[in-house]
């Protein structure tokens, strides 16, 4: 009785599928963490830049303009008091002097840490104090002393020159704060672009990762499984002696070897059945010849 000799298991086994999945998951996790970090960093930077514009430099710019308005109103009050000699005309000076103190404190906090702005702010305060000590305070004292010439002095070139120095210092301070504010706005726009770019790059990376994962899945899992299924169909179609060679990850290669082992067992059983059938056929032929001989003998 002939017997089909089981063939040696064949197949090309790669790295285990579990190991590949773990490595791919780690790569995707690292990529995801990098993308999330980049996006969060861009958003934090955008928020910080926006806060600088809204909560710091816009108020600082407005305060620098308010300071000049405070001093202008003080000068108007002093000049009106010098010309009218009525105490009510001096009320704007008192009110806006208090406002100037509040605004100076607020602006000092906002420009803290900026040496260039603090220098310009110091120049403005020096000019206002010089005007107050040389013009405002003496003129108020002269009005209270009933000096008739103080009205003319309030409109003199000396008084105008002292106040013009305030205007120059205030304009310089406002211009510098405005430049910082405008730069902060440009930085904010840049931050917006970085945020958008981060989202776009993240989306592209996710898309690319999806393509890479699909190609890897196709190459390492789907392709070997389809090839194994095709070979199994060929065996089921009658090619029982065709060896099944599995490739791909170790798990699929092991499955292919198990299927090939099953094929070998089936082939061996079929060989035994065929051998038994041949023996029966041979015995049947012998029996038929014996019957024929007996019939001939009977006729004789």
Model description:
It is a single chain. The chain is rod-shaped and about 175 Å long. The protein has 300 residues and is mainly α. It starts with 10 loop residues before the first strand and ends with a helix. The protein has a two-stranded parallel sheet. α1 packs parallel to α3. Helix content is 84%, strand content 2%. It has helices at residues 17-84, 91-110, 115-144, 150-154, 157-236, 250-299; strands at residues 11-13, 246-248.
Largest sheet: 2 strands, parallel
Runs with pLDDT <50, length 5+? 1-12
How many individual β-strands?
2
Identify the strand order in the major beta sheet: 1-2
Residues in helices, as a percent range: over 70%
| Subunit arrangement of the protein | single chain
| Proportion of strand residues | under 5%
Quote the average pLDDT.
83
| H/E element sequence | EHHHHHEH
Helix run count: 6
Spatial separation of the terminal alpha carbons: 40 Å
Morphology call: rod-shaped
């Amino acid at each position: 009785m002939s017997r089909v000799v089981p063939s040696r298991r064949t197949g090309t086994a790669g790295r285990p599928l579990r190991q590949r999945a773990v490595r791919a998951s780690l790569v995707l996790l690292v990529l995801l963490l990098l993308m999330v970090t980049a996006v969060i960093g861009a958003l934090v930077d955008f928020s910080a830049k926006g806060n600088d514009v809204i909560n710091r430099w816009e108020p600082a710019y407005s305060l620098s303009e308010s300071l000049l308005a405070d001093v202008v109103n003080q000068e108007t009050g002093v000049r009106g008091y010098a010309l009218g000699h009525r105490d009510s005309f001096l009320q704007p000076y008192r009110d806006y002097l208090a406002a100037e103190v509040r605004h100076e404190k607020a602006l000092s906090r906002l420009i803290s840490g900026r040496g260039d702005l603090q220098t310009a702010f110091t120049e403005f305060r020096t000019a206002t104090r010089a005007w107050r000590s040389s013009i405002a305070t003496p003129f108020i004292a002269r009005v209270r002393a009933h000096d008739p010439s103080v009205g003319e002095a309030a409109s003199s070139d000396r008084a105008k020159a002292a106040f013009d120095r305030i205007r120059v210092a205030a304009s310089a301070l406002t211009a510098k704060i405005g430049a910082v504010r405008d730069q902060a706005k440009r930085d904010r726009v840049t931050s917006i672009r970085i945020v958008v770019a981060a989202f776009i790059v993240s989306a592209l990376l996710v898309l690319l990762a999806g393509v890479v994962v699909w190609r890897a899945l196709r190459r390492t899992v789907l392709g070997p499984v389809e090839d194994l299924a095709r070979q199994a169909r060929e065996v089921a179609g009658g090619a029982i002696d065709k060896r099944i060679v599995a490739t791909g990850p170790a798990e699929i290669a092991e499955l292919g070897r198990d299927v090939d082992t099953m094929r070998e067992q089936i082939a061996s059983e079929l060989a035994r059945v065929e051998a038994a059938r041949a023996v029966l056929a041979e015995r049947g032929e012998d029996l038929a010849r014996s019957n024929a001989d007996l019939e001939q003998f009977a006729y004789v």
